[in-house]
Design a protein that fits this description.
33 strands; 7-stranded antiparallel sheet; 2 domains
């Protein structure tokens, strides 16, 4: 009797385990076809009996909404549940918002709404991806594995994940010397996640709660929580050397670092005089040195925040997108490129992307390539004149695209002023820039002109919708 009772208990526990087991919907693959069409699929798993897709193009969708694109599949094909609609017209840059519903072991499951951006149109005859495909790739991931075409990093900012991102706290210096300090919450409320977006918004240091000092006479101590060992975390105002007048935010991927891949960042850029965003790839281990851009920086895309910024008759305000590779502070602008828009880049969200291979780095915005950097001669550094410091011997030890041949991390942030982003002969709204880049009083002169620039900070935040990195 005891044995039978024990058996019944085991069976009951087994049934409870079976009924409460959580099923996870497999990854959804979406292919945009040419000249028209969409193909959506998931891998087959035992117990699946229904696959339903609901989607909208460039329009949001909620759970249980009926999409403009919809399909119901009751049978798998060659190991996948595949829905196709060859009448849907898609273009590069379109955003497909969708959710899927499946029935597994007679129970229904709905995958939360998600989105994917169309990066290319594929030939309809291209094979359906299989669940176990892991093609070879040039992409390398620190402490990880990459499969050709697969996403190796994705951040949708449903909340602020401090296990993924390091929120920086330090006072930056060379080579840019921006007029900011980077501080973490709760020291300063500059970094937050709101409505599924990352928001980085600069503030006046004097207005930060708990700051009881003076910009011109006080002390700023950031040692508690300092994240840098190469720059300072404490400053004292003395004479013309004031405290950083702006407190801002900066995030860097903490554990994720990679070599070669496709990065996409959907963001809305800040607008306001003397502000500029940092959307960067930066060297993880600083293989070629830590100063003077020695290990390379990729500026994925940015626009200076001034509405009317000019040098002579040449304008380069918030309607001018610029970016490129930085390898040398002296010849900083040698490999920077730009693209003009009829509207400020901060008026709307745009997808800024970089495709990084062993041979070339290309920048795109909303699916349109606008800058390309390839090694000429023996290496990338051959594109610099002999007078530039980039001709140092350290780069001779790397590949022809050195220093862009090592693991890099993703950095997001905002800076203000500094000694590199704004030429000395620049004017903003017809008024001369208030500081000289070579002056010891640069930050002080910027601060003394606060009445002119603070009123322009009507949308000073960098707002990021998502970040993805895909293997080549």
């Amino acid at each position: 009797m005891a044995s039978r009772a024990c058996t019944r208990v085991i069976l009951i526990l087994a049934w409870i385990k079976l009924l409460t087991a959580q099923y996870s919907i497999p990854s959804v693959t979406i292919q945009a076809l040419k000249p028209k069409g969409i193909r959506v699929s998931i891998p087959d798993t035992p117990g699946l009996s229904l696959f339903v897709f609901q989607g909208n193009v460039n329009r949001s969708i909620a759970k249980n909404d009926v999409g403009n694109i919809m399909g119901e599949i009751t049978e798998p094909t060659d190991g996948r549940w595949v829905f196709e609609d060859l009448d849907v017209q898609l273009n590069v840059g379109d955003v497909i918002n969708y959710y899927v519903h499946v029935v597994h072991n007679q129970m229904g499951y709905i995958k939360d709404p998600d989105s994917v951006i169309v990066r290319e149109l594929e030939d309809p005859s291209s094979k359906n991806p299989t669940a176990n495909d892991c093609g070879t790739t040039q992409t390398r991931v620190r402490n990880g594995k990459a499969c050709a075409g697969n996403i190796i990093f994705e951040e949708r900012f449903d909340f602020l994940r401090e296990d993924v991102w390091q929120i920086e706290q330090y006072i930056p210096d060379e080579p840019d010397f921006p007029f900011v300090s980077y501080q973490r919450p709760f020291n300063a409320p500059t970094v937050s996640v709101q409505g599924g977006n990352l928001r980085i918004e600069p503030k006046l240091q004097q207005n930060v709660p708990g700051f009881g000092s003076s910009i011109e006479m006080g002390t700023l101590d950031l040692f508690s929580g300092c994240t840098s060992t190469s720059t300072k975390c404490r400053a004292e105002a003395w004479g013309a050397s004031i405290l950083p007048p702006i407190v801002s935010g900066r995030l860097t991927t903490k554990a994720f670092a990679f070599t070669y891949g496709l990065v996409e960042i959907r963001a809305k850029l800040p607008q306001g005089d003397w502000l500029y965003p940092d959307i960067l790839l930066e060297s993880f281990l600083k293989k070629y040195g830590s100063l003077n851009y020695a290990s390379g920086v990729v500026r994925v895309g940015g626009a200076r925040g001034n509405e009317q910024l000019a040098v002579g008759s040449t304008g380069f305000g918030n309607n001018l997108l610029y970016g490129g590779v930085l390898m040398d502070a002296t010849c900083r602008d040698t490999l920077l490129r730009n693209k003009t828009s009829s509207r400020p880049w901060g008026d709307d969200f745009h997808v800024y992307s970089v495709r990084w291979t062993p041979d070339v780095i290309t920048l795109s915005v909303d699916g349109e390539e606008w800058a390309r950097f390839a090694a000429s001669g023996d290496s990338l550094k051959d594109q610099f004149p002999p007078s530039c410091d980039v001709a140092r011997s350290a780069l001779t030890t790397g590949s022809k695209l050195a220093p862009f041949d090592d693991h890099f991390v993703i950095t997001l942030g905002i800076a203000a002023g500094g000694i590199t982003e704004f030429p000395d002969d620049a004017t903003s709204g017809g008024k001369p820039k208030p500081w000289k880049n070579t002056s010891r009083k640069a930050s002080l002169r910027f601060w003394q002109d606060i009445a002119s620039w603070i009123e322009t900070w009507r949308q000073p935040a960098l707002i990021v919708d998502y970040v993805t990195v895909r293997a080549l």
